[in-house]
Structures are given as C-alpha cells and as structure tokens.
Amino acid sequence: MPKDTGIGAPTKRREDIRFLTGKGRYSDDIKTYGQAAAVFARSTVANGIIKSIDTSAAEGMPGVLAVFTGEDFVEVGGNPAGWLINSRDGEPMKEPKRPVLAHGKVRHVGDAYAAVIAETEAEARDAAEAIEIDIEELPAVVDMKQALSGTTYVHDEIGTNQCFDWGWIEDNRAATDEAIKGAHHVTTLELVNNRLVPNAMEPRCSIGEYRAANDEYTLHTTSQNPHLTRLLISAFVMGIPENKLTVIAPDVGGGFGSKIYHYGEEALVLAASKRIGRPVKWTSDRNEAFLTDAHGRDHVTKIELAMDADGKFLAFRTETHANVGAYLSNFATATPTFLHGTLMAGNYTVPNVYVNVKAVFTNTAPVDAYRGAGRPEATYSLERVIDKAAREIGMDPIELRRKNFIQPDQYPYASAAGLEYDSGNYDALMDQMEKVADKAGFAARRKESEAKGLWRGFGVNAYIEACGIAPSNLVGQLGSRVGLYDAATVRVNATGNLSVMVGAHSHGQGHETAFPQIVGDMLGIDPATIDIVHGDTSKIPFGMGTYGSRSLAVCGSAIVRATEKVIDKAKKIAAHMMESAPEDIELKDGNFTVAGTDKSVSFGEVALKAYIPHDFPLENIEPGLEETAFYDPANFTYPSGAYCCEVEVDPKTGKVRVDRMTAVDDFGNVINPMIVTGQVHGGLGQGIGQALLENTTYDENGQLLTASYMDYAMPRADDLPFYTVDHSQGTPCTHNPLGVKGCGEAGAIGSPPTVVNAVIDAIQSGGVNVTHIDMPVSPHRVWDAIQNA
Amino acid sequence: MTKISMKINGKPVTKEVEGRTLLVTFLREDQHLTGTHIGCDTSQCGACTVHVDGKQVKACSMFAIEADGAEVGTIEGQANADGSLNRIQQAFQDHHGLQCGFCTPGMVMAAASLLEANPSPTEADVRSHLQGNICRCTGYHNIVKAIMAASGQDVSAIAAE
Fold first, then answer.
1. Which of A5, A363, A719, B117 could form a disulfide with A46 if both were Cys (CB 3.0 to 4.6 A apart)?
2. Would the CB atoms of A722 and B131 count as touching at under 8 Å?
3. Tens-place pLDDT, residues A623-640
4. So what's the architecture of A299-469+635-788 in CATH?
5. CA distance A206 to chain B (A)
C-alpha cells in the first residue's frame, strides 16, 4: 500500500481550497491600476477583400484611447507554424502569413481586422461597432474537396488551398497497395471525424502591460505554456527580447489544447499597452471563443483494412482530408500528420500501413490540436473499420482484435507506422475490461432492454496513443521547429521547505498536489512542505508546457532528475557534517545516515547548513541547495486501453443513451490515482460528447451556425452516466524514471469509437443492417439510418 | 446612474450603477467578488450562479438594479464561519469534484440550492438540477458523486477512488 501522501496515494488536491472558496485568480480576475479595455472588430463574412476601414468615428467616441488596424502590424512578423511538413513530392508545405490583425483580406468569420482600446469594455465595444469597413465579399471556401478543385483561394498568394499532401510512410506505399490487392478480404469505410470546439469554460483573456522606464513587457494570459508563448512573441511575432518579456499564466480554467497556441490578441494588448502607456486587458466572450479559438478534429477519411482468411491484418491504408482552417495555428500541421499517421498501426501486428493526408485551407476558424490531437482521429478510423470488418467476416469483434494484438514478449515493438512501442499488454487490458464491465451479464441486460422496446448494444475499442511527444532529436528530423523536453528547478530553502519550479502548467491537472508527492517521496519529507511554482516565465527556468499528456512523463521526469541532483549534493553536505564520505550516506525517511552507524542528520539540518556554510570546504561544496534539470525523453510513452460501452437505442426516436461506460487503461505507474481517474472521466465526457452531441457547423457561406451554447451541444450532466475506470493493468514505461505514461487524453481517444460501435451493435440487434453512422450519432441521424436501411 | 442597496453575503452595500450593469459585472468589477465567473454570453453555462433572496440565479441574467433590496449570496460567502469548507465544498474536495475550478463556484451554488429543496436527491435529481451548469473537465461523475455525498448519502458504491 502506498503511504498516504507519497507516490500512489490518492492525495486530496490542495488547489481545491482556493477554487472552492472563490479565491482562484484567473486572468480576468486581475485588475491593475490604469487598466484599459480592448475589444476587437471582427469580420462577419468568411472571405473578402478589405477595401477600406474608417476608424474616425470610433476614435472620437467617449473613452476611446486608441484604435488599431492591420496597417499597424504590417512591419511585425507573423504567427508561425511549429512543424514543417513536406509533401510526398518533397515540396515544403505552404505557409501563408498569419498576421496579428487581418490586412488586405479577411479569411474567416471572426477574423479580427481592428481593435479599440477604451477606458471601459462597454465604451470599447460601442466604439468597435462604429468602425466602418468596406469589404468586397468573395465566395467562401468551406467544403474541403471543393476547396481542392476550385479556383477561389483562402490565400491568393499561394495559388492553392492545399497546405500539403503528406504520405506516411511513402516507402511503404507500394507494399501496402500490393497487400490490399492480394488480400482475402478488404473492408472499406468512409467516415467523418466531426469538427469540435474545445470550449474550456474560461474564455481566453490577455492583459498586456508595458513599462517604458525599463522597456519591459508583462503579459498575463490564458496559456497552457507561457514559455512557448513568450518564445513565439519574441522570436517571430513582435521581436521583443525574451529578457524583456514576462509571460504569466495564472489560474487557467481549462485548455484542452485551445490554449497551447499564441493568438493575435496577445500581441495586440502588448502593442496597445506600449502605445497608451497603460495596461490593456482583453477578455473573450463565448461567441468570440467559438469564432476564434482553434477548433479540433475535422477529418474526412477513407480507410481500408485488408485481412487474410484467418482474420490476420495485412494492411491499413487511409486517405484523409484534414481541415486546417483559414490560417495555420502553431501545431496545425503536426496534428493530422505525426500525431495521427504514426498511430495508424494501432495495437496490432499489421505489417503494412500507408497514410495519406491532404491538409486543406478553408474560410473557417483555424483547426489545431484538441484533447487527443490526431490520436482520436487515428483510433476512430482504426477501431471503426475493425468493428465493421468483424461483422463482415462473422467474427466476434474482441476476438478479431485479440488475434492481431502485439504480444507482451514482442516489446520493444517496431510498428509498421514508424514508432517503437516500449511496453503494453493488450490482452490483459481486454480481460480486465470484460471482467469489470460484466460482459457476461450483457445478454441478460439486452433482454431487459428489449422488454422495454429498446435495442441494447455492446461496443468495444482497443487504443494506443503516443504521449510526451519526444525526443527532440527525432522530432527535429521530422520537422518540429521546437525541442520537446521540459525543465524543473528544485529549490531547498534554508528552513527546509521547498519550492519546485516546473515548466509544465496546471489548468485542472492537479500538479500542485501530484508533483510534491513525487519530491516528498524521494526525499522522505512531508509533501505539505513542498510548493509547486508554475506559469511564470520570470520564476521558472524554461518549459514547454502542458499538452499531449506530457506533464508527468516529461516534466515529472525533470523533477526526478533535479531532485536526484539535490540528493547528491545534500549527501555531500551531510557527509561533511558527519565527517564521512558521500558514498557512505544513505537517505531514508528524511534523514541522512552514515551507513552501518547510528550517526544521522535530518533533511532540515542539511538544508540549513547549505545556507550557513561557515565551515564548508568551498573547493568541494558550493553553498546553497538548488538544482535544475532539463529532461529530454528517449521516446514517446505509449498508454493503451480497452474500453467498452453499452448503449440503449430507442428505435422509435433514434435517441441513444449511454448506460455503461468502462475504461481500462494502461498508464504505467500512477502517482495520484484520484487525479488520474478524474482525468479519464473528463476525457470520457468529451469523447461521448463527440460521439453523440457535439458538432461544429458552417453553412456554405462560411457562417458558423453553432456559435453559442444555445446551438452547440455541450454535454450536460444528464447526458452522461457514471463511468467505471480501472488502471490496475499498468505496464511501466521503460524509459522514464517514474515509469509513467500519461493519462490526460486517453478518455477522449478511446471513447468515440466505443460509443459508435455500441450504437451500430444495438441497431444490428434490432435486425436492421446499418454499418456506419457519422458522429455525432444524433437521434435524427440514427432514425434516418434505421429508416433508410 | 441609479443608487442601489443590497446585502451581499450578509454585508450591506450601497452603490450607484449604470442601468445596463449586470449583476455579475457588479459583483466582479465593483465588489471585487471574482469567484463568480463569466463563462458564456447566453445564460447557459452557469459559472455565474449565485443566490438572490434564497433562489438560484444566473447573475448574468439580471441587472444589478434588479437586485436592489435583495439578499445576494456568492461563493465567497459559502464557507463556514471559521473559514473551513462547508459540507458541499468539502465533499467536492473529498470526491475530486473539480479540476480547473472555473465552473466550480457555480456548481457549489447550484448544489446548495438543490440540497435545500431536496435534502436527499437521487442521481437523476442531481443530473437534472445541473442541466444549467456546464463543466468541461470532470465529465460530471465526481460532481454528481460529491453532491450526493454532501447530502449524507453513502456513495461508496459509485465507482472510482
């Protein structure tokens, strides 16, 4: 059993106290002396040429301090894409500039072309409405396939709407084609991975503050990765030296990917603060969030699965159109490629995989990573086509998966999609899923449902994902323009308590509680004496932030490395104090002991000594006790899982109700099982939302029809069931010091195909031959499918 | 400008406000009670849920002048007199009923209204009552569990740590 506060303990979260008492400090809660408000004027058309902008009326309105247009930012850089993708023919991707404010052209509804700074938000809003813009509206590019065949371009200067045409792995193409041609059975499925809006409950907010006396800027902003935001602003967008720009992400109310990226509003408030000499705040409203936050998913895919006569997989081949929207968001090009194509071998010993992805510009909001980022798309395609194949060849869908699983003795396993999986045990996960979900009782439950006139279905899924994106030398070869490591500083204060500065950012993940569990465990001290410092570039050495389920696997490993260095140094000090040799010192339960003796000093005594080094041999030991580590992983981590879901379908209305949802995940070792379970719950909620409720709809003119909570179906409490979550079957990651894999996205990756598979199973049980329904599997779509079968 | 008076968390307040000032704006900008959050602009998300004369209200759906003379309760007034968490807040911590914390004040306020009207709600009662409060982090599992636990019901049979 774990100690009640160390690694493995379900420690209650310390951050909860401030959130539960209304004392959190989110960006919009910050109000500084002289703070002015920014409001943006945004395009109401999807595609158009800006003929003129007249700001004179707005400038004369009460309270107005400044008005900006795209003209003010033509001299600064653009917001870059973080990952270079080369097309199959070797040509680099098209990278149109993404300006701070639209200039010359607007490219999606919500594209900001001007901003008003005023004394109050109400005055700024009034003035923004008084800006006169003359736009020559052009036809909107909305549908991806039409975008590729048409002659209206989102970016005229590149003369195409195709960003890239990527093949993975191009050298495998011919062999894959050959395997499919000669296969005993080929199952084909065309599907849509529906476009989603991340919808963190806290809208984005940024406060820029320029201090002329020091030529310094501070940006408070809703970010998952303040250092990355600083880097982008400094190196690409505004040229502010990094040492003159502090980026602070205080409490952040959820991110789910949407707050990874740098957005133009952040640059605007900095520039505005410099111009008016006062702090400037912008807070997004929800409608703006729908129009301008980076969206997620939006793939249209054709997948083929080739099998031999025994049901052994021979090949997967996919063709995907991936919408990147009007501008390239920072990771928009990595998401449909290296976070998607590399996972297209799934959990299976399939020898041939070929993935083709065409990324397409459209007059819609930018699309980028949203919880799961590419891996939900891969899993959905694979696990839907496998289910369809099982039905076609008359094999149980679990048996078909088991027949093709990579076996525990095959690790490390080189997948046909180019990754090396380090660990896993997919049959054990499936066994556990069948047990905790009471699969044996399904038949009886189905009868009960049938007695009520409802069709009950059982859907399964096996997923693998890649987390903690790494290592830097590999991602660099694959086109990443950033390194993917993380950093931590462990500072032991003189009085024995600790401040741990981390590059990861917590916006719901509970780092303030979980990270001290690690350090406390290693040092043998009470985690309550350890505080986590995050989200402030002036306090933390560096960090790549929190996304891709990386915080624990990457930053947690940096914390371990830094703590190891602290222990090494503390042992030197303890040895000096006890006139012994460092190699003879043992650390146990917070005490340093000379091995084999009863001589001992406490951690606190060593800490104090480190800062009062009256008798230190300074040539051997520096004063102080503080260490920093940068950790660059050797590989991705590979969480995996087996999920199942039972739904009831009402054939009279098409209504689907999720009755039972079970997630059995292999996250490797678990630091705080309470937090891990909560992460899975949240992912399941979002995944079920994608499967049944959520959809982002643009009309043919590029107008967003789902731009509020009245129109976009967010999952609510009565849409979702209690979940069964199990992580008892962990196989530790083999290459990081904690043996951890990452749990933040799993629920959202594993659940959508599970739900859809269950719906198809339910409908089939009613004797109706429906083989696929696109998400969201709404009552209307289900009813239509039943009627048209 | 209109002069209004109300009690907020038991404390009398008198202020001049613009007619268009929403109650939520008054609480946040004028009273510096930033625990009441703004998560949408269509009175859907429930992050601004407060109590007005004992009723559960979305503070973005009424003007400050409409609360003239009212008793207003916000998340800042929910803890026990000694500053410790009240039973609902404590249950949210015990059962990990919050993650990013942004929807949490609204959830706690909604839960308080539910438990006052229905001291022993079923799972369906809780889920139904929370229809107007959106959470994106938790999938609702632990929120529902926490509220049932706060009502004194045994929730040990509901899955998870």
1. A363
2. no
3. 999 999 999 999 999 999
4. 2-Layer Sandwich (3.30)
5. 15
